[in-house]
Structure formats: structure tokens, C-alpha cells
Amino acid sequence: MSPTDPPALGIELVRALARLEGYPPLDAETAARIAAGATSAVRAVAAAATASLFDVEPASFLAELERLGDAG
Amino acid sequence: MTGGAVPATLVAAAQAIAVGELSSVELTRRCLAAAQRLNAALNCFVRIEDAAALEAAARADAVRATGAALGPLHGVPLATKDMFYDPARETSSGSRVRQGFRAAARATVLARLAAAGAVDLGSLSMTEFALGPTGHNAFHGACRNPWNPAHIAGGSSGGAGAAVAARIVFAALGSDTGGSIRLPATVNGVLGLKPTYGRVSRAGAMPLSWSLDHVGPLARTAGDLARVLGVIAGRDPLDASSSARAVPRYEALLGRGIEGLVIGVPRNFYAADVAAAVATVLDRARAALAGLGARLVEVDVPEPGLLTELGRAIVYSEAAAVHGHWLRTRAADYSPQVRARAATGIAIPAATYLEALQLRPRLLAAFVDSVYGACDVLATPSLGIEVPTLADTDVGATEAMWETIGRLCQYTAPFNYLGLPALSLPVGFSRGRLPVGLQLVGRPFAEARLLAVAAAYQTVTDWHQREPLAA
Predict the structure, then answer these.
(1) Which of A12, B21, B97, B292 pairs with B7 at a CA distance of 20 to 30 A?
(2) What's the ipTM?
(3) Other CB atoms closer than 10 Å to residue B65's CB: what's the count?
């Protein structure tokens, strides 16, 4: 982790989110794994979103695959 | 035919049945006998459907006797991962939660296999809810590798890889959200193809992550893979994400050779973490492709590690939605690792998930421009380490969980996010006599090109003819 990375999610925050979302209580090990996995995913998205996505429609993905498709 | 040799390939078996040299009943009996004999050691089937398979085989023989036109898989025994819905049988998705579940409608891919004449031998073992690259399963037991049962058969389509490698079936159907076709193909020494996103219908396949799930075949030869893909590919009105793009005649394009084809070898990332014993085998494979007329060039690949993490943001968000009700009401029915992974999405903000989806078309275009501006096909490792043991990868939800998963999916997962077609090709064995796979990745809808490379490679090598000890 570099000094500019956003802080990692903590176990207590994950447990609070789980309670809020109606999940049964999480043990510390499960909460730690969720915190680690979610932290890396959130950091990656923050790092990749380097320009505005204002006009990007996620459903355009299949059309983009077809546009870029192999001609044979 | 009675008592003769079983054909080596699916294509040969279909031909033998079509011309009357072999009956489907005879072939199905032999495959069922192999399944019964080997399943105790490999645990690759969760259910073997003896009676239904023999009935289907008898129907196939009766149809042939009428002189009617036959489908491309007529009478040939296959098997499918325990996650494709079929009202005629249970689909447990490798889980306790779905034990006893019977779907109301049949998966499109099962209907297409049946329409092509295939005989389905049963449901193949898988990781619980397809969430795991090793093949461990707390409820059904781990699937074992036919080359060495102490080692993993991979996941999540481990039963598919093991059953095809052990010569129980000619081909199998799996699914791939981060490597779940290609990893089992790799570690069991068979071919596995994750088609382009949208190429094969997912209607009636258990969802893990709608945006990253892919359905595809595993087989022992490029020709067999091409035949199965040709049957299952194509637009399906029941799957809104399926493409209307025409399906090429994959088998007819297999023999076009690879003279002049430019194969990209990644300069960055993919070379960094590959074990020496694996790297040596991959180098030999690339040299064989060069010997067939391909030109090898070094290419820079845009940040595959980042692509994997972006994919995780999507998979875990969608998995948390898919499993939300059961995680709230039946959490104890999940194994600890699958519970932790499926619940990871509860801590990923919705805006983050949507941004990961929004970034996808943009990063796809950048990847295609940069990589396929320099080569026709990218060749990476399928797995950078020697096939690990079941014991070494039995990490549950401990601190080693993310690292273990990450190491196994490092080379496969980026292409689920990008939706690109990727094929794992068996190219030899490591020092421990366990298979090594080369991953071929093409631009969108370039399955025919990947199959042609694999077919050319198999004309000058015999890895696909080697049989594991368990067979």
C-alpha cells in the first residue's frame, strides 16, 4: 500500500454493514477476509477511474465486443 | 463394434456411430463403466445417470437405424457441470443450499447438446456455487487430479477437467467467471475454452456473476472443442446478453494453419511470477508454434492485475446480490470460504461496482488497440505454478485465502473482465509429471483463430494422446 492509497476497510465497519444489511453476525475471520477483498477491489476501481465516466453506459459492453470483433 | 478400442476423439466417435461401426449403447456402456470404476478415486461426478444415459443412447441408435439425418454429436457420451438446469434431475450447484433443487426449464446449452444428439452421462462435480479455483468442496468432497490424486483437479469445473482427462467422456461443459474452465483444463491436461462474452448462452446456467460468467467446453483435441462450440454457440432469445453475431464453421476453419500468424508474448507481468519448471515447458511450446510458421513478438499488456481487481469488484457485488437472501437466512449452509467470498460485496459500494462496469468497454478498447495492434493472438501461461496439492490449497477462509485464489487465477481472471476468448492448451508436463497449460487469448469472437492455433500445435505434438495413470 502506498501512502496515497485510501485507508483499508476495518473489521468493525464490515460487521456494521453486515448488520445493516440484515446478515447474521460475522466472526472476526470472515469479516477480515471481506474487509481485505473489498478494500483491494475498491482501491483498484479508484485507481482505474482516471477520467470522467459521465457518458459511459455499462450496457454498451456487448456492442463494444462486437465492434472490436475478429473479422475472421 | 464390441470389445474393440474406444475411439480417441469425439469426432471419431461420432463418425463411427454415424457409419454404424459402433453403437451409441455400446460406447455409452463403456463410458459408464469407466465412470463407475474411476469415480471412487477421482470424485468427478456428483451423479452418474446410468439409466437415462442408456435410454438416450438407445434412442440415438434407433434414430440412426431409420436413416434420418444425424446431429454432430449423435450418440456421443458427454457430461455437464452440476449447474446447468434440467427439470429431469437435481441441480445442486455443488452446494448444500441447492440440494434437491429441480429447475422448471432446461438450460439452453443442455437443449442444444441434446438436439445435436449428445448423450449426457450425468452431473460433474464443482466447487460450491462455482466460487473457488481448487476443486475443494465441503459437501461433496474434493475432486482429484487423474494425473496424481494428491493434487487439485482445479475449479470450479474440476469434475469436467478430470472426467475428460480420465477418458470417461469425450467432452464436458463448464463455466468460467475467473478461470473456472481454463484452470481445470490446465491442471488436468486437456483443452478448455472460455468463449467471448455473449458467444454462448447462459440461460439456465447457475448465476455467479451475470457480467463475468461464461459457458464453454473442455475436450482433448481442438477438433472436439470446435465441434462442441459449434453446437452451443449463437444467439439465444432467453439470454439478453447473447450476441447475434453469426457463428463461424469452426471445424472447417481448423486446418487453415498458422503460417505468418503473429503471436504476442507478454513482456510484462506474465513473465514475472512463473515457476522455472513451468517456464521451460511454455518456452518449448512457443518454439513449436514458431516452428509451424508463427512469428513471436514481445508485447506490453496493459495492467492485468488491475483488470483482475476490477473484475472482483463486479463478481463480489453481483454474487452478494445473488446470494443475499441465503446469506441472511442460511449462512451456516455455506462453507466458510464461499460465505466470505460471496459476502464480500456487502462492503463494496454500489457506485464502485457501477464504475467497474462503466470502465469495462473503455478498458476493453484500450486493450484490444494496444495488444492486437501488435499481434494476432496473445500467448500467456494458464497457470504460473506447478499444479499444487489439495493439502497445500485447502486454506478455507484463513488469511491465506486471497493469496491462494489470486495465485491460481492470476493469468485467467483479466480476460473475464475483458470478455475476450481464451483457450488453455496442454503443452507438456512439469518436473512433477503434472500438466502445464499455455493460454491463447484472442480479440473478441476470435475463437476460430484460437482453435486453429491449438489444432496446428496438436499436429506436431502428442501431449493430448497421453493418458493419466488413473485411466
Answers:
(1) B292
(2) 0.94
(3) 10
Tens-digit pLDDT profile for residues B295-349? 999 999 998 999 999 999 999 999 999 999 999 999 999 999 999 999 999 999 9
Distance CA(B436)–CA(B188), nearest Å, equals 9
Q: End-to-end alpha-carbon separation of chain A, Å?
A: 44
Spatial separation of the C-alpha atoms in residues A36 and A31, rounded to whole Å: 9
Q: Is B387 on the interface with A (CB under 8 A)?
A: no
Contact B94, B156 (CB under 8 A): yes
Minimal Cα–Cα distance from A55 to chain B, Å?
A: 9
Instruction: Choose, from B156, B157, B211, B382, the residue flagged as catalytic.
Output: B156
Query: Can you give the pTM of this predicted structure?
Result: 0.97
Separation of alpha carbons A14 and A16, rounded Å: 5
A41, B339: Cβ pair inside 8 Å? no
Q: What is the CA radius of gyration of chain A?
A: 18
How many other C-beta atoms can be found within 10 angstroms of the C-beta atom of residue B283?
A: 13
Nearest beta carbon to residue B196 from set A45, A49, A65: A65
Closest CA to B436 of B381, B369, B378: B381
- Contact of B419 with chain A, judged by CB distance below 8 Å, is answered with yes
| Chain B residues 46-85 with a CB less than 8 Å from chain A | none
User: Do B365 and A64 count as a contact with CB atoms less than 8 A apart?
Assistant: yes
In Å, what is the CA distance from B313 to each residue of A39, B39, B411?
10, 36, 17
Tell me how far CA of residue B163 lies from CA of B43, B217, B227, B289, in angstroms: 9, 13, 18, 28
B25 min Cα distance to partner chain A (Å):
39
Q: Residue B389: beta bridge partners?
A: B151
